[in-house]
Amino acid sequence: MDIKKFIEDFADQFDETELDEFKPETNYREDLDEWSSLIGLAILNMIDKKYGVKLTATDIKDTITIEDVFNLVVSKK
Known about the structure:
Shape: globular
Strand content: under 5%
Largest sheet: none
CATH topology: Non-ribosomal Peptide Synthetase Peptidyl Carrier Protein, Chain A
Number of strands: 0
CATH class: Mainly Alpha
């Protein structure tokens, strides 16, 4: 699994935020103004559909960066 592709898939869940704002170290809750719980649900759905990993809100609660989410998905594959 490639983090660059994961970041693109992650960014696709946002309508107004430019792709260049998404980096592995991005604190997605604090750094992205568009972040919402609905986008969080969309990300969980995307991870399930594209990566075959079912995560819960509790699973990602302790993540801070996009790379943290990526590493969580990799660990559950």
